[in-house]
Design a protein that fits this description.
CATH superfamily of the largest domain: Response regulator
Order of helices and strands: EHEHEHEHEHEHHHHH
Structural class: alpha/beta
Protein name: Response regulator
Distance between the termini: 48 Å
Helix content: 40-55%
Radius of gyration: 17 Å
CATH topology of the largest domain: Rossmann fold
Pfam families: GerE (PF00196), Response_reg (PF00072)
Largest sheet: 6 strands, parallel
Number of helices: 10
Strand order of the largest sheet: 2-1-3-4-5-6
CATH class of the largest domain: Alpha Beta
Number of domains: 2
Keywords: DNA-binding, Phosphoprotein, Transcription, Transcription regulation
Organism: Streptacidiphilus cavernicola
Number of strands: 6
Length: 221
């Protein structure tokens, strides 16, 4: 059973998500948080597998709440799935750095949201394609754009850097395998080696590494 904590400052939204989660046989809602501070507290006491986290909340926003949850020894196994809108995409990159494992838009169909919870709970990362595109645009406007690759990146092979670039562009494992004309298992092996060599927790952190290394660049104009 996957245990889910719902954090949103709007009671109607929280209640709707909780009802949706409880309709799935393999998911159960273990609590609701109306503020970022409450989300941090409940994450510590309930130890959910996944937190559905809104970004704009009182006391602490979703970014700081995510950072505190991910940095606490007692909640290191908790995964954060951010629910965002087009109007607040500028916060998404900061939330990735804080440790979020996934992002979905709030108008995501119910079935897709439930599937996303399962993906994140399994240790994968999930980025909505529209959010990934906006992330790339936002990153290029940040002061860190163009920063040289970290020393860890020098330990990767040319093929691994190619895979990292495709991850940064938001491609799935299957799409990466198709693009490189390799088997799905080979693509997964490359990704596993990237996680190990770069010390990344999940796919979301590999996206950050691709941006940081300058492997992902926007189209001009």
């Amino acid at each position: 059973m996957i245990r889910v904590l719902v954090a949103d400052d709007q009671a109607l939204v929280r209640g709707s998500f909780r009802i949706l989660v409880d309709t799935a046989a393999d998911l159960t809602a273990v609590g609701e948080a109306a503020t970022g501070a409450e989300a941090v507290r409940l994450a510590g006491s309930e130890r959910p597998d996944v937190v559905l986290m809104d970004i704009r909340m009182p006391d602490l926003d979703g970014i700081e709440a995510t950072r505190r949850i991910m940095s606490s020894p007692g909640t290191t196994g908790v995964r954060i799935l951010i629910l965002t809108t087009f109007g607040i995409d500028e916060y998404v990159f900061a939330a990735l750095r804080a440790g979020a494992s996934g992002f979905l838009l709030k108008d995501t169909p119910p079935g897709d949201l439930l599937a996303a919870i399962r993906v994140v709970a399994a240790g994968e990362a999930l980025l909505a394609p529209a959010v990934t595109r906006r992330l790339i645009e936002e990153f290029t406007r940040s002061p860190e754009a163009g920063r040289p690759p970290s020393e860890a990146l020098h330990e990767t092979t040319e093929r691994e850097r190619e895979v990292l670039t495709l991850i940064g562009l938001g491609l799935s494992n299957t799409e990466i395998a198709d693009r490189l004309h390799v088997s799905l298992s080979t693509a997964k092996t490359h990704i596993g080696r990237l996680l190990m060599k770069l010390g990344a927790r999940d796919r979301a952190q590999l996206v950050i590494a691709a941006y940081d290394a300058g492997l992902v660049r926007p189209r001009s104009g």
